[in-house]
Design brief:
The protein contains 13 helices and 10 strands. By secondary structure, the chain is α+β, with helices and mostly antiparallel strands. Helix 2 packs antiparallel against helix 3, helix 5 packs antiparallel against helix 6 and helix 6 packs antiparallel against helix 7. The structure holds zinc ion.
Length: about 375
């Protein structure tokens, strides 16, 4: 999931998905028009809105604290966290890889809700103990209740919710089979998604309450997230035993770094199969200068094709992760994710270029593997 980057904390980028703004507006609106005026009818409109906005922003901070709970535990286990994105279901910490044992997975999953429990207990305790002012107590009480709800929702045992991750860890420990555990827990996740949608439907049709739309939306998001996780796990499973050599393309020709994009497009990358080509080095010591893909042409401005050169748009050698033909495909994919790039070079033990892997090679391989293989050549008439 991609979002708008808003800052960096503990070395982790924090981003917000557009859907999160919907949540913010919805919560601020619901608080300012329902919860606070009902509980404190004597507040002025300005006070109500100020308190509602403050409460919503603090809720945002506590969801972030929840995600940092997951992320910091992940990092302590040696799993780098790329970023934290806040979206409609709360937050998601994007890990560069999955935990390698059920115990680690469970500990990582529970760390977030533990932070939320602490925030809920702290806020409710403070609301109880503080003598005032009334507005502060109201915000603290709301934060306490909201975080408690957050804990309950996140602990539902459907993947990819935290409770679903705990369920997966349990099933993983029992069956010793991570992909089966993922399949089962994502199925439960989908079931919860459908249950939310059904509940929302009943609320609208029977109760005439439009708040049901919210439940339908949450259910739908949950189903999508469970589906995406199941697909990703299946892809990783199909890539098991596949090495970089299988996915590698051997260069058919080379591009000069000084070639204009016009020339590269017309002369070399015109062929649809030639998706990427290596670029010759600019100094005698290097073996290659970089890698250019047809995708780079699409990203470049069309009107500058006659002036911009290959070296301006290619991925330069220092930015290209290098793997050997024996590297496992899943590890190559992980490396691409970690280095935030879409291509890697394949080199032999001496560092000599053998070929390259473009990110599209993975989907091409998976699609080809899905198609049934033809068993015998078409028969010919005798
Ligand atoms: Zn969580």
């Amino acid at each position: 999931m991609t979002g708008i980057r808003i800052g960096r904390l503990f070395g982790i980028d924090v981003a917000v998905h557009p859907s999160w703004f919907l949540v913010l507006v919805f919560f601020a609106f619901a608080l300012a028009n329902g919860f606070f005026p009902n509980t404190y009818p004597h507040w002025s409109v300005a006070t109500t809105w100020t308190v509602a906005t403050a409460a919503t922003l603090l809720l945002f901070v506590s969801v972030l604290a929840h995600e940092f709970g997951h992320s910091l535990v992940a990092r302590s286990q040696g799993i780098p966290v790329r970023n934290i994105t806040l979206f409609i279901l709360g937050g998601v910490a994007q890990l560069t890889r999955e935990p390698d044992s059920p115990g680690r997975e469970a500990w990582m999953a529970i760390a977030g809700p533990l932070v939320s429990v602490a925030v809920a207990a702290g806020s409710l305790g403070a609301a109880w103990l503080l003598p005032g002012p009334e507005q502060l107590v109201a915000v603290l009480a709301y934060l306490g209740v909201a975080n408690a709800i957050l804990v309950v929702f996140n602990l539902l045992p459907g993947f990819p919710l935290d409770g679903g991750r705990v369920l997966r860890a349990l099933l993983w420990r029992i069956t010793h089979d991570r992909s089966r555990a993922t399949a089962w827990s994502t199925t439960v996740g989908r079931a919860f998604g459908w249950a939310f949608m059904a509940l929302g439907g009943v609320q609208i049709l029977v109760g005439g309450n439009l708040g049901g739309i919210w439940l339908i939306f949450i259910g739908w998001m949950l189903i999508q997230a469970a589906k995406a996780t199941a697909q990703q796990t299946m892809a990783e499973e199909r890539l098991a035993g596949v090495s970089a050599a299988t996915l590698m393309t051997t260069p058919e020709s080379w591009l000069s770094p000084y070639m204009t994009l016009d020339w590269a497009a017309r002369d070399r990358l015109r062929d649809w199969d030639t998706r990427c080509l290596p670029v010759s080095p600019e100094d005698a010591e290097s073996e290659y200068g970089g890698l250019m893909c047809a995708r780079d042409l699409q990203r470049a401005a069309r009107e500058r094709y006659d002036r911009d050169r290959v070296r301006d748009v290619m991925t330069p050698a220092p930015k290209l992760p290098a793997v050997t033909p024996e590297t496992e495909a899943a590890d190559v994919l992980r490396l691409l994710r970690e280095r935030e790039t879409d291509r890697a070079v394949v080199v032999d033990r001496g560092g000599h270029l053998l070929g390259f892997i473009d990110v599209d090679a993975f989907s091409r391989y998976l699609n080809a593997a899905r198609r049934p293989r033809r068993l015998s050549p078409p028969s010919t008439a005798a």
